Structure formats: structure tokens, C-alpha cells
Amino acid sequence: MPEIIDDISAEDRKRLELSGIEFDQQKRSGTFVQRDQHIHHSSSKIEGIEMLPLDIAMNKYGWLKDYYWNLVDREKDEYTRFVADREEKEGLRGFVVIARKGSKNIFPLQSCLFMQKAEVQTVHNIIIAEEGAELHLITGCTSSIGREKGTHYGITEIYVGKDALISTTMIHTWGENIDVYPRSAAKVDENGTFLSNYVSLKPVGTVQMYPVADLTGKNSVARFNSVVLAPKGSYLDLGQRALLNGEGSSAELVSRMITSGGTVIARSHIAGISENTKGHIECKGLILEDGIIHSVPEVEGRLKNTELTHEAAVGKIARDEIEYLMARGLDEEEATATIIRGFLDVRIKGLPDSLQKEIDAAIDAAESGF
Amino acid sequence: MLKIEDLHVSVEGKEVLHDINLHIREGETHVLMGPNGSGKTSLLRSVMGFSGYEITSGSIIFKGIDITNLPLYERARYGMGLMFQRPPTISGLKLGKLLMATSGGEIGEIGRSASQMKMADFLDRDVNAGFSGGEIKRSEVLQLLIQQPDFVMLDEPESGVDLENIALIGHSIARLVEKDRHIIDRHKSGLIITHTGYILDYLDADAGHMLCDGEIKCHGNPREILKVIQEKGYQECIRCQK
Ligand SMILES: Nc1ncnc2c1ncn2[C@@H]1O[C@H](COP(=O)(O)OP(=O)(O)OP(=O)(O)O)[C@@H](O)[C@H]1O
Ligand SMILES: [Mg+2]
Question: Which residues of chain A have a CB within 8 Å of the CB of B147?
């Protein structure tokens, strides 16, 4: 079987693996690879699930134009305009996943976005799960080691159909000089579930994003989980928003943030707009070395029958917790690392084991850097 | 095993322990009694080496070495263990993971000890999070079973424990301090804080000490000291001063 991507250094290969990319395709239901602006690979092995480059998909399915620049406004900001502009001049980049009615993938699909040489990478992705489908996708984003600078722009539009489930797990392994501007939005229909997981444990320049889930369907659910480490020099401005438009819809936004000198801004917003809606925000931050963790939780209730809560805590590891482990024989560094490992340990409901393991592995690999 | 000489300890600038002298030999287990706030927990925590307990004078000799200034974890590695009266909750850290970290990965032993302490279902829970009073004690004993210290200090192991679990905890502690072995084969030692003395139903203590206002007022037979406290209160014990 041909490699999903050739001509890459052993070091970069490792970084891709750290971002959850499997070179052994047996463990993935499908693969998309974009290196810089070049698409290397796009395929799915699962009956009923297609994974196509955006341009091919748009040609194949005329109806896709209604999904393109639909949830994300192309005029939203300079970054969306930049992508739209490039699309007109250079053609389309990025992928489309369509999970047909009732289809399901147990092993996730993977998309690999790799910046090797180009200064700028743009992608535009559309992810659709039709009625009753269950779709799991892991996206690994990496830049080649030692890159001087670069900017990544990503548009993602996600459509969760009736009774469907989409989980997206994004693991970033960028470099210190890479700036990243994802622009994502999801729409969730009746009884649909959207799980969005974000992991960034390596140095990065600037990340700025604020994905929105519009829970239009009755009893729809969204859960966002972020696990973030900001080393010195990294600046992560991360938001997550849930609009509880459907009756009985609910959302949970969970962030675990650590700074060892960098900045994390965690913005979370839940709007309780319809009857019997529920939302919870949980932000926990650990300051290992002087840096900034700025948690901005917003709960906005618009009617009586909505129940919105938030809890936020930022600080250092409690001395008595460290000493508890030291009394069992761990030295201070081991005790601290063990507590941090636990702090970052989020169990994500509805996520297949294989994906939870990828998240766990990324955290384990970062442990030596705490 | 442990020799405390003329020990003075201050907490936040206030002296809480005055001129403590205590000698526990290899194979011996002693009990420590005394009213609330008398300084029992402070003594154990000072011996273990926690921050906040400033030793202003005196020394602690452990297995022949002066450990007065040794860091906490080195004392633990050198063979000291402590059962906490009120351990902290560590959210996110699973009990099983903690045991893995402290045991060096002896999965089989963790499993066996956990079922022995009826804690197998707790390995996947956050350390001490929402544990009941009795569950906390069982978890503490489990951690000590994995750690296997030569000298173990237990801070009120039986308080808040129901009748069934007290037998489990009592027998396990007896094994920790090798009271289940013949005296010739007994090398481990212990110091147990107790208010009720229930623990004495499971192991014979070799000596008892009464701490009052930060001073050891009485050394003697633990059952006799308890009897006096029960019948006449702490006051009598202080008055007799022998
Ligand atoms: N961190 C602290 N700050 C202030 N005072 C303290 C601190 N730790 C202990 N003390 C004080 O030292 C004294 C001894 O406390 P200690 O916990 O050792 O008592 P104890 O004998 O274990 O009591 P109990 O039987 O209630 O457990 C008390 O007056 C207590 O308030
Ligand atoms: Mg006490």
C-alpha cells in the first residue's frame, strides 16, 4: 500500500503521529492529506461515507453549493475573506465528508493538514452527517519542524443531521512561529449530537478561533472540550459558543488550560434561547509559571425555562496535593507532573476508545514538557 | 527505628509542640492519645516533613540517620509512611494512576491489594473525590499497602469507620506493622493516633503516649492510659504525670 504522504523527514512524521495521524491505514476509515496547498490523498473505505477534496465534491454534487459558505459567513472577517479570495484565484482546497443516512464509522476518518514549505495554507472543509449517521473525524495539524513562519487559515462547516452524531477531534502540533485562524461553525438538527475536541500542547505563535454550534434541532446536544498548554511565547485566544435554539437542546463547554509562560484566553458563551434548555461551562486553569489564563465565561438566559451554569477556577497546584504525593515517595517534579496529567484527563462521553487514546497519548507525550 | 529528641515545632510562628521525646524500636508499635487540638497530627506531620511545620530545635533520628532536615519525599523513600487524617482531593487523578505512579507499575499487586481493601471499584475514580469517611480510610490503607513503609504513622485510622470495615482496616494495619508475625520476624514499626482505642482489638500496642497542649504528659501501657481517660477524663492523666 502506498504511503499517505511521502518525502517527509522522520521528525515530521513523528509530529504527525503525535497529532493523531495514523500511517497505517488499517486503523483509519479514510484519509485526507493536504501538504501546503497540494492535496495528496483523499479516500474513504466505509460504505456510505465519502471523503473527497472540496473541488471534486463540488463538481460531483451540485447541491453542495448550499452548504458552502453557508454556516461561516465569507465576509465575517479578514481571514474568511482571505480564504474566499484564494479560492477564487487558486481554486478550492480542503475536503468534504458526507456520511449517508445510517452510516457509521468505528475507526475514525483522519485529515492531515501539514505545512511543510508554504508560508500560507488555506483549507475549507464541509462535514455532513445525514439522518442517523455516526461520523468520527480526527484532524492532525502540523508544521514542519524549525519553520520560520507561516499562517494557517481553516474554514469548517459542520452539518449534524437528525439523530446523527459528529465528533471532530483536532490535535495541533504547530511551531512557535505559526499563526492559526480556524473559522468553524456547526448546525445540529433534532436529536443530533456534536462533539468538538481540541488539543494543543505544543508551542504555537497565535491561535485565534471561536467555533459556534447552533443547536437548532429539538433535544440536540453539543459538547466542546479543550485541552491546552501555552508555553512561553504562545498566545491562544480560544472561544466556544453554543446557541440553544432548539427546544430541550443542551451544551457543555469544558476547558482545561495550563500556562507555563504563555497566554490562554478561554471565552465561552452559551445562550439559552428556547424552552427547557440547559448549558454548563467549566473552565479550569493551572498556572505553572507566570503567564496568563483569562477565562471569560458567559451565560445568557433569555427565558425562564433555561438552566445555565458556569464554574471557573484559575490558580496554581495546591501545595497539599503535591505533598500528598510526595509523602508516597514521588519527588516534587514527579508529583507535579502526576497532578497535571490528572488535571488534563478529560473523559469525553460518546467518543470512541481509539480517539480517546489519541488524546491521552498526546497528553502523555507532553508530560515531559510540563 | 525512630528517635525523637527534645523536639520543638512551630506552626505559623506559634509553638505547637514542646520538648517532645519519643523512642520507637524496630518491631514496636505505639499509640498516641490526647484531646482534640493537643498536637497529635502536628507531631506526625512534623516527623514526615510537611511544609509549615518548622522545627525550631531538637532532632528526629530515623533508622540511625538524622532526618530532621531531609525533604518529605526522601523520608518516604527511606521508609516512612503516613495515613492522612484529612487527605486532599485531587481532581482528575485516578486512584489507580496514583498507585501506578507510587508502585512503579506493579499492576498485579495493585489489583490484589485493591480487592483486599474492597477498593477495586475505586481505581477509576478521582483520588478522594466524593469518598465517604470510611472509603477514605480504606484508600489510605491501600496506598500504604502498596508503599510498604518500614515505619508507618496512622492518624485516627478507625474514626468514622463502620463495624465491618473496622475489622478490615484493623487487620490490614496489623499486617502493615507485622503484628501478624512472630516477634523475631517483626521488623516494621508504627505510631497510631487513636481516641477510642478500637484499633487495640486488632493489634497489641507496645506502648502508649498521652499528648496534651503540645507536650507528652504520660508514657505507659496504652490500655491503662485509655482506661484512665475513659473513667476520669484527660485531666486525671495530666495530673498524675508519670
Ligand atoms: N496550619 C495551622 N495553622 C494554625 N494553627 C494550626 C495549624 N496546624 C495546626 N494548628 C494548631 O495546632 C494545634 C494542634 O493541632 P493538631 O491538628 O496537631 O491537633 P490534634 O491533636 O491532631 O487534634 P485532633 O484530635 O482534633 O485531630 C491546634 O491548636 C491547631 O489549631
Ligand atoms: Mg489530628
Answer: 328-329
Half-sphere exposure in the Cβ direction for A351 (13 Å, CA): 26
For atom 5 of ligand 1, the residue with the nearest CA is: B11
- Same structural domain, A253 and A325: no
Looking at the structure, tell me whether residues A360 and A279 fall in a common domain: no
Q: Which helix (H) or strand (E) holds B145?
A: helix B133-147
Same domain, yes or no: A293 and A369? no
Q: Is residue B140 part of a domain?
A: no
Query: Which ipTM value was assigned to this complex?
Result: 0.95
* B16 Cβ below 6 A of ligand 1: yes
Verify that A283 and A354 share a domain, yes or no: no
Instruction: Tell me if B76 and A334 make a contact (CB, 8 A cut-off).
Output: no
From the CA of B47, which ligand is nearest? 1
CA distance B81 to chain A (A): 7
Domains: count for chain B = 1
- What's the domain range around A44? 3-319
Average pLDDT over residues A170-191: 96
Give mean pLDDT, residues A123-142.
97
Residue spans of beta strands (DSSP E) within chain B: 2-11, 14-24, 29-33, 53-62, 65-66, 80-83, 90-94, 126-127, 151-155, 189-193, 207-212, 215-220
8 Å CB contact of B90 and A339: yes
Statement: the pTM of the whole predicted model exceeds 0.80: yes
Contact between chains at A327 and B90 (C-beta distance less than 8 A): no
Q: Is B92 close to A343, i.e. CB distance below 8 A?
A: yes
pLDDT band at residue A1, thresholds of 50, 70 and 90?
Answer: very low
Closest CA to A69 of A52, A88, A48, A51: A88
Grid cell listed for A203: 508551542
Q: Is B71 in the pocket of ligand 1 (CB under 6 A)?
A: no
Q: Answer yes or no: do A306 and A328 share one domain.
A: no
| pLDDT at residue A4, rounded to an integer | 79
Q: Give me ligand 1 centre to Cα B111, in Å.
A: 36
Task: Assign residue B22 the CATH number of its domain.
Answer: 3.40.50.300
Minimum-distance ligand 1 atom for the alpha carbon of B39: 18
User: B81 in a domain, yes or no?
Assistant: yes
Cα–Cα dist A97/A91, whole Å: 19
The amino acid present at B60, given as its one-letter code, is I
A277 with A331, same domain: the answer is no
